[in-house]
């Protein structure tokens, strides 16, 4: 086999934000937008990367494939995945990324997972998808330098159409949760603020490190060991900021489990309320929202969305609104108008239905 084409989707996290690295449970689903990679073998030790979206051609020799020699550009996600899977044969890799960049829809994980699946096939590795997810995460953590959790890579590799994926971020055990929005006359509107975050900066890392330090101070190994009652009992030993960060994690984990129960009952009104509660927690306790995200949420809720919240790492990116189909156009119009009045960039809109995970598109 000389050539393989693979693709992997971006994702929306329905609920469970900033929880994967806090050892909780998350409930994302794959979206329709995908990144496709075409990988072909070379007869040397060079890796040549091209992109449908970029003009530059990047070549890296295997001898320079190391985190200490990363380029700090888009090629790091490909190089890091090759490095994590310990590939030493030269490759041509061409990518076509259709997952919007910087929108909080995990374009980076889509690229990593498409490359990982393609490498697994072309070299006949036959690795379980859980292993590929951990290797793709390692690429982002150690090569790119972004301390992300395991959620994005897991859902990109393991999602199924029509379902959200409940992921235990410690064991990687998964459960498919039916999410039939169409039957309920609902859509999940994605509102891209066009404020593009750069999560490799300190904001994400600081929150992760603060949560880890708070757990050490409380003498606990994981946020899953805590509930709200215990936090009230022991939390006075924490400083105010650490207490709020932990409170978000503990309450968000609870909201994930509540959301699964509501989805199994078909209670989308209740789910919408949890989405809105999640946003307030991310805004006030975790402090990763921004005015553009807050305005998107406020307008959506005021115009009839069942609930809305920011998604992704925060500091920009996208919000989601669980919305009756007949109200989508009105919400879009009102958000555009509100953004114009606030002198914010013009937002972009997508609608998302739960889609299939990574797949091999063709061999040869």
Would you give an account of this structure?
- The chain has ten helices and twelve strands.
- The chain has two domains: 3-179, Ribosomal Protein S5, domain 2 (2-Layer Sandwich); 182-352, Alpha-Beta Plaits (2-Layer Sandwich).
- The strands form two sheets. Strands 1, 2, 3, 4, 5, 6, 7 and 12 form an eight-stranded mixed beta sheet that branches. A four-stranded antiparallel beta sheet has the order 9-10-8-11.
- By secondary structure, it is of the alpha+beta class.
What CATH architecture label of the largest domain applies?
A: 2-Layer Sandwich
- How many E-type strands? 12
H/E element order: EEEEHEHHHEEEHHHHHEEHEE
- The total number of structural domains is 2
The gross shape turns out to be globular
Helix content: 25-40%
What is Rg?
20 Å
Proportion of β residues? 25-35%
Count of helical stretches: 10
Q: Helices and strands: which structural class?
A: alpha+beta
CATH class of the largest domain: Alpha Beta
**Low-pLDDT segments, ≥5 res:** none
> According to CATH, what is the topology of the largest domain?
Ribosomal Protein S5, domain 2
What is the mean pLDDT? 93
Kindly report how far apart the N and C termini lie: 6 Å
Give the biggest sheet: 8 strands, mixed
């Amino acid at each position: 086999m000389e050539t393989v084409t693979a693709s992997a989707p971006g994702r929306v996290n329905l609920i469970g934000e900033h929880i994967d690295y806090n050892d909780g449970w998350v409930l994302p689903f794959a979206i329709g937008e995908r990144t496709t990679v075409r990988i072909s073998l070379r007869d040397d030790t060079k890796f040549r990367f091209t992109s449908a979206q970029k003009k530059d051609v990047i070549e890296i020799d295997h001898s320079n494939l190391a985190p200490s020699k990363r380029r700090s550009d888009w090629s790091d996600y490909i190089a890091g995945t090759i490095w994590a899977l310990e590939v030493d044969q030269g490759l041509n890799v061409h990518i076509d990324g259709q997952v919007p960049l910087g929108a909080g829809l995990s374009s980076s994980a889509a690229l990593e997972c498409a490359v990982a699946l393609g490498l697994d096939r072309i070299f006949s590795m036959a690795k379980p998808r859980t292993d590929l997810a951990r290797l793709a995460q390692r690429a982002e953590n150690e090569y790119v330098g972004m301390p992300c959790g395991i959620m994005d890579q897991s859902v990109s590799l393991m999602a199924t159409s029509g379902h959200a994926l409940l992921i235990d971020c410690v064991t990687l055990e998964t459960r498919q949760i039916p999410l039939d929005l169409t039957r309920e006359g609902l859509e999940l509107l994605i509102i891209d603020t066009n404020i593009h975050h750069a999560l490799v900066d300190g904001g994400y890392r600081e929150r992760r490190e603060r949560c880890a330090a708070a757990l050490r101070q409380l003498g606990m190994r994981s946020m899953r060991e805590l509930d709200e009652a215990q936090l009230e009992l022991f939390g006075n030993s924490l400083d105010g900021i650490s207490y709020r960060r932990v409170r978000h994690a503990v309450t968000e984990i609870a909201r994930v489990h509540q959301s699964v129960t509501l989805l199994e009952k078909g209670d989308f009104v209740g789910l919408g309320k949890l989405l809105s509660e999640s946003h307030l927690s991310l805004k006030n306790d975790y402090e990763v929202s921004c005015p553009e995200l807050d305005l998107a949420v406020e307008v959506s809720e005021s115009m009839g969305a069942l609930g809305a919240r920011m998604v992704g790492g925060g500091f920009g990116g996208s919000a989601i609104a669980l919305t009756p189909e007949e109200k989508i156009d009105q919400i879009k119009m009102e958000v555009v108008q509100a953004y114009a009045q606030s002198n914010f960039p013009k937002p972009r809109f997508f609608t998302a239905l739960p889609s299939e995970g990574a797949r091999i598109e063709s061999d040869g």
